Amino acid sequence: MKKIKRMAGLTVLNLIFIIICLLALIPILYAVSLSFCNGGSGLSSDLSFWPKDPTWKNYSAILVEEPFLLWLKNSAILSVGTMIAAMGTAVTAAYAFSRYRFKGRNGVLQALLILNAFPQILSMFAIFRLFKTFHLLNSYLGLIIVYAGSMCIFSIWNMKGYFDTIPVEIEEAARIDGAGSGQILMKVVLPLARPAIIVTSVMVLIFVWNEYLFSTTFMMNEGSYTLAAGLYQLQTSDYSRSWPLFSAAAILVSIPILIVFFCIQKYMVSGLTAGGVKG
């Protein structure tokens, strides 16, 4: 009897989860349907998940008539550049905070959290003046510095929590065998921390891919627009907004992220949950 109650409870719970997932998919399915619509407006049409006259013209228009590929290139450069810069500093810093006990360690970690608590927009004017002084406006380098500084804090804390779960005895055994500090980090610790490194890198990538505020403020030339900035300009440049065209662009933007997500899906659970943050 107890087993039947348990199975019934799990069945009801699974049904609730399935319904929630289906409800969450409604906006996505509508956007996909809208991207194949033949009309120019999406708000005046009835809610339908299958267009009356499906067409590919919205996708061809965004790829041929708009500089979508240029926006894609700009976003890819910024995303990959930020990921390399942020992870290159965060991995070593996180390992140092996890393994070594030095004066000011806890204070620095707490200061990083406090800095991360402030909204980014508070620093907008100061960063703009600095960029203007050092001629970094409309520059990949300037935005990469801003993005890397923002995401480095998250990356350090996420990686530190994972490094804390790796037994110190493994490193001590490698040191007894004659391995140096660099060899231990590169050949022992980093392979064990691969799930956390991959997941953190992808989260940095997604943040930059979707970021809008800084990209529209510091990249003011049409040739330097990112995907987020380009899609916004796509909707503000015309009096008659083409929501099917915008939906097609949004679907195309999401495809690279979906591909990356499915490639690293097996690392998601271990990379996010195995490293509880310790002091």
The radius of gyration computed from the alpha-carbon positions, rounded to a whole number of angstroms, is 23 Å
Distance between the termini: 46 Å
Order of helices and strands: HHHHHHHHHHHHH
Runs in which pLDDT lies below 50 for 5 or more consecutive residues are: 275-279
CATH classification class: Mainly Alpha
Which band does the percent of strand residues land in?
under 5%
Mean pLDDT: 83
General form:
globular
Instruction: Indicate the CATH architecture.
Output: Orthogonal Bundle
Q: Please, could you describe this protein's structure?
A:
The chain has one domain (67-276): Orthogonal Bundle (MetI-like fold). The longest helix is centred in the N-terminal third of the chain and has 34 residues, at 2-35. The protein has helices at residues 2-35, 57-64, 68-99, 105-117, 124-133, 140-163, 168-176, 181-192, 194-210, 213-218, 227-236, 243-263, 265-273. The chain has 279 residues and is mostly helical. Helix 1 packs across helix 12 (243-263) and helix 4 packs across helix 6. It has 13 helices and no strands. The protein starts with a helix and ends in a 6-residue tail after the last helix. It is globular and about 70 Å long. Helices cover 73% and strands 0% of the residues.
